[in-house]
Amino acid sequence: MRYERLATEQTNRASRALDRLAPLRIALLMNREDRRAVLAVARVGRQIATAVEAIVAALSRGGRLFFVGAGTSGRLGVLEAAECPPTFGTPRRLVQAIIAGGPAAVFHSREGAEDDARAAARLVRTRVRPDDVVVGVSASGVTPFVRAALATARRRGTRTVLVACNPASTRGVRADVVIAPAPGPEVLAGSTRLKAGTATKLVLNTLTTATMARLGKVYGNRMVDLQPRSAKLRERAVRLIAEIAGVQRPHARRALVESGARVRVAIVMARYGWSARQAARALREVGGSLRGVLQRPRRK
After folding, report:
1. How far is Cα 169 from Cα 130, in angstroms, rounded to an integer?
2. pLDDT by residue (tens digit) across 14-33?
3. What amino acid positions are annotated as catalytic residues?
4. The model's pTM
5. CATH H superfamily, domain 3-214
6. Does the domain spanning 231-294 belong to CATH 1.10.8.1080?
């Protein structure tokens, strides 16, 4: 492998004097370069949409979503998986992450773990099923841990997605969908936690948010399945119930309590004056879609 040919390993001409720049110049330079990451992700919108469709189909059939990566890429996958339950009310096993080096690698770098292809294959064989989707995350696109995970998943009949920031390195990679934004060389040469990390996070943000929106975990642009376990989130839940159901805050607060802190159920209760059981049943009848309940004719 000629690593020096990878865009993420090359030197950025705009930052060759980085060590001689004043802090403000560095801040402005990095901001300009970060814009390249945003534009790069915009250019792969169709591929992101294709991946979302595959993930939605899998989750609708009872499958799960796995992010697999090493180093910064692995940590971004862990972050995405960790954010789904509090944001969308998903079961903790629905969106999972596999990081090279195991959970300890989230906090302490284990760079050599990215070369352990056998460990990746073993973890995929142990945890992944054919009806799941595996998203391999690799800034370089050539990480052995990620490539082995994708290859093993494909042999098991699992749908696969590769997210990489070196389009040239993805040629020949066998994945159902390849998402390869090209943010270019880093301000700090080789430090893919910078633009490549930003581009990757933007892609993962879109994969999970668009998927959950399509699965009915969102009403309009509101998080109606949030888990109100803090004072801030309880107040947000009360506002959601009041605004969507069209009731006063005391009414919304009572509905939240009586629903067992299930925001979607509380909204239906407050809107129609139903019990928690009636509201939950109505949601089940339309596959959990809040919009499906609120837009159909009211029961008499």
Report:
1. 26
2. 999 999 999 999 999 999 99
3. 83, 114
4. 0.91
5. Glucose-6-phosphate isomerase like protein; domain 1 (3.40.50.10490)
6. yes
